[in-house]
Amino acid sequence: MDTPSRLEIDLTAIERNVATMRRVCSASQGRSVGVCAVLKADAYGLGAPRVAKRLEIAAVEMVAVFTPDQARSLVESAIRCPILVLMPVRSFNRTDTLHRALVEGRLHLSVHDEQQLQSLISHTDRFGLRLPVHVEVNMGMNRGGARPDEAERLLKRIHAHPRLILAGLYTHFPSADTDNSATRELAIAFESWRRSVADSMTDACIVHMANTFGAFRSHELHADMVRIGLALIGYAQEEIADPDACELVEHAGSLLPAVRWSSQIVHVSQVSKGETVGYGGAWKAKRRTRLGLVPVGYADGYPLTLSDRGRVGVKIGAEGGAQETAFAPVVGRVSMDQITIDITDLPEDAVGVGTGVELIGLDREAPNHLPTLARTAGTISHDFLCGLSSRVQRAYRSTDSQTTAAVDYSRG
Fold this sequence. Notes:
Number of domains: 2
Helix content: 25-40%
CATH superfamily of the largest domain: Alanine racemase
Low-confidence stretches: 401-412
Shape: elongated
CATH architecture of the largest domain: Alpha-Beta Barrel
Structural class: alpha/beta
Number of helices: 11
CATH topology of the largest domain: TIM Barrel
Mean pLDDT: 94
C-alpha cells in the first residue's frame, strides 16, 4: 500500500501567476518586459520538467537553472525555450546531451570572470559554436559575478569575438525583500554603469535584475526581463518585509498558491492527563487527549522545529462533498516518519482513521499557509519547499480541466 501523503502542484495556478506577473510589468515605461522562470533545485522540488512544460504554454521567454545537470533534465524533457545556466560553467563535452542545445543556441551560459570566459572561448573555437552568454555583474551581492571593472573587460572581449553572442547582462539584488532604498540605489548604480558600457552591447542584449520581490517594488527595476521563482508558485507579499514601500504590491494578492501537501490520519489513540507524547516526553497532556497519527516527519521535510508549534488542517466532511477545515496542533516532537496531532476538540464521529489532513494548505489566512508555516519553523518558503523529500509523491493538477494526474516523482 502506498503512503497517503502527496504534494499537489496546481499547474493552472502557475500559468495564471505568469499572467499576473505580466500584468505587473505591463506598464514598464511603455515597453514589453519578458519573464524568466527560475527553476533552480528542480523547481524548488516541485519537478522542473513538468512545471517547465506548463510554463512553455504560458509563453515565458526564458527559464533559468543553476547547474548543467538541472539544464540537462529540461533539455532531455524536450523543453524548447531558452535555458539560462546561472552557475559559471567552464567546459562542456561534445557527447553531452547539452551540446545540441548549445549548437541550437537554446542554452545560454553565464559569464562570471575572465578565466571562465577564456575557457568558453577555447571551447567555442574548438567546436565551431556560436555561444549565447549573459554577463553577471556583482553590484554588492558578493556571491557570483564580476565586479563592474572586470565586467567591462568581459563585455569588450565578448563584443570582439565572432563566436560569442552577448545575449544578456544581469545583476542580483541582495535584499530586495527587505531593503527598498538599498535595492533602488543598486539599481541606479547598475543602470549608470550599463550606460557607460553601451558601446559593447547590442539591441539584442537582454538586461535583467529584478527577482520576484524586486518586480513588485517598482517598474524602474524591471529592465528588459524579470526573473521570478517564488511568484510562480503564488507567494510574494507574505515575505516582503516592507510591503508599503513596494509600489506594485497590490498585484501580489492576485497570485494563486499552487502547492498543497496532503496526508491523512492513520491511527487514533487516547492519553490520560499527565501522560507525555513523543521523544523526550516534551509534551504533557493537560487533559484526557485524543491523538491522531499522521505519516509524515522530518524525513519527508516536515521540519523538526515545528515540534509543538505546527498546526495542520483537518478535513471534516465526506471526501468529494462539502468539507470544512479545522486546525489541530502538532503535539510532541516531530519524528522521522510521523507527527502526532491533538484532535480532542474535533467531532469524534467525523474525525478518525482516514480523515484528510493538510500539511500545507491554500488559504493565505490559515496557519498552514506555506509562508506562515515556514516562518513558524524559523525559515523561509524557498528552504521549506526545497527540503521536501522526493519520497513524497508529486501530483500535478489542472484546475481548468478539473483533472488530477499523479506521477512517479523518480521518473519526473
